[in-house]
Amino acid sequence: MSAAATDPRDDHDLLRAHVEGDPDAYAELVRRHRDRLWAVALRTMGNREDAADGLQDGLVAGYRRAATFRGDAAVSTWLHRVVVNACLDRLRAAKVRRTDPLPDDLEDHAERGSLVSAAPTEGDPAEASVRAERRTAVLAALRRLPEDQRAALVLVDMEGYPVAEAAAILDCAVGTVKSRCSRGRSRLAELLRPLLDAAGEQAHTPTGNPPPARSVESPDAPRGPPTAG
Amino acid sequence: MTTLSTDDDRIRELLADARHTGPIPDDVAARLDAALGELAGSSGEPLPEPVLPTPVPSPAVPDLAAARRRRTARNLLIAAAAVVVVGVGISRLDLSGVSSSADDSGSSADGPASASDAGGDAAAGSDGSLRKATGPTVVLDSDRFGHQVRALRLREPVASAPASGAYDAPTDGTTDGPADRLFGADGERSSELGAARASCDPASWGPGRRVKARYDGKAGVLIYRPAQGDTQVVELYLCGHDDPTRSITLPRR
């Protein structure tokens, strides 16, 4: 992000400069936001290749449609909107031929070691494996949701956007986003029921092995060896 | 806390845990930079009007108004062609009836059989029913005259010549009178017919219902005299003759 540090212009200035013909402004703007845009595209599309295509489609669309930006929202929100719309368009277009490949970003994480929230379990391969399996199951279930619900959950529950901003990105009402999120979570709860149940049991199960039970003492005197005679 | 809310919270946690936190892969970033660089290199000027992203090849939007105009013009053209065809057909039918009579006239020396053949489909069959050209002129043969006249009376109404007056004397030079239809709308230019036309005056042939006729190829008028008692006389006058060429007495209907 050195470019962002060297370019003093804010997002609005960069977009305006791009519209006015600055050949480098849009690229700079994209560099500032592309990691988060990538995350949204990846989770919305469900696989790396489609995410790359959707991200490129969206950013190219943003490049061409920059003049339509009215300035009534954050530039990042607008960028998210064009990328999410491009991803949703791709999902709808590819619905009939889409398969459900396993999420392949886990390998990326493994290579980069970028599971920032995995700090407590770092160094525990067993726990890392369990967590990876859980993420795989969640992402697989996420891909089974309708596109609209999936996009809402990605923005709100995954990326942590406020509902109002997610509504601005998705170009719909706040209530619509809430409804989509609620229905999406309910559906995920059905799909992930075994995972939820296992987690519940684990929460009520004391950790570690129970202490060994004491041997029961016999009230009778131990029998001695048979006496001769 | 209910199970539902617990599930909801747990799902949120799972989703948050599945969040992608890594940076964009290098190859994806390079590809994106290349695409945007290509766009920047291709323009280099203030952007034109925005275009839709990921343009999908689609057929040009049809101009509905132009299509409607083309359809209307085509329909009008078809209607006009139909009118022309019908008009030409009708005139051909008229002419064919007359020309067959003219042919009959030209071949009258061959006898009635020849004239009957020349009549073609305008003539009656061998059952002796009325041979009537399309239009107001009936075609008669000398050998079946009686039979044809009887049939003609049964098949009323038939086209009649004026009850009085010279139906064949278009003195104003027009060619749309009954005599013209009788002699052919295109005008049969023979001197024989011209003379016949000049002398074909039904008024001098007495009262009765008149039917334009061509008898063995010759123009004339068939006159159904008023019935007298139980009989009715039918006479055939050929143009240029003052006396009836044929006469037949039929029982009164």
Automatic annotation (TrEMBL), chain A:
Top-level division of the source organism's lineage: Bacteria
A Pfam match: Sigma70_r2
Protein name in UniProt: RNA polymerase sigma factor SigM
InterPro entries: RNA_pol_sigma-70-like (IPR039425), RNA_pol_sigma-70_dom (IPR014284), RNA_pol_sigma70_r2 (IPR007627), RNA_pol_sigma70_r4_t2 (IPR013249), RNA_pol_sigma_r2 (IPR013325), RNA_pol_sigma_r3/r4-like (IPR013324), WH-like_DNA-bd_sf (IPR036388)
Gene3D superfamilies: 1.10.1740.10, Winged helix-like DNA-binding domain superfamily/Winged helix DNA-binding domain
Annotated ranges, domain RNA polymerase sigma factor 70 region 4 type: 137-188
UniProt KW DNA-binding keyword: yes
Keywords: DNA-binding, Sigma factor, Transcription, Transcription regulation
Annotated segments matching region Disordered: 101-130, 197-229
Domain annotation RNA polymerase sigma-70 region: ranges: 29-95
UniProtKB/TrEMBL annotation, chain B:
Span list, region Disordered: 35-56, 97-135, 160-179, 186-205
Keywords: Membrane, Transmembrane, Transmembrane helix
The organism's place on the tree of life at top rank: Bacteria
Skewed-composition ranges (Pro residues): 47-56
Transmembrane segments: 76-93
Biased composition (Low complexity): 97-128
Tagged with keyword DNA-binding: no
Protein name: DUF1707 domain-containing protein
Organism from which the protein derives: Nocardioides mangrovi
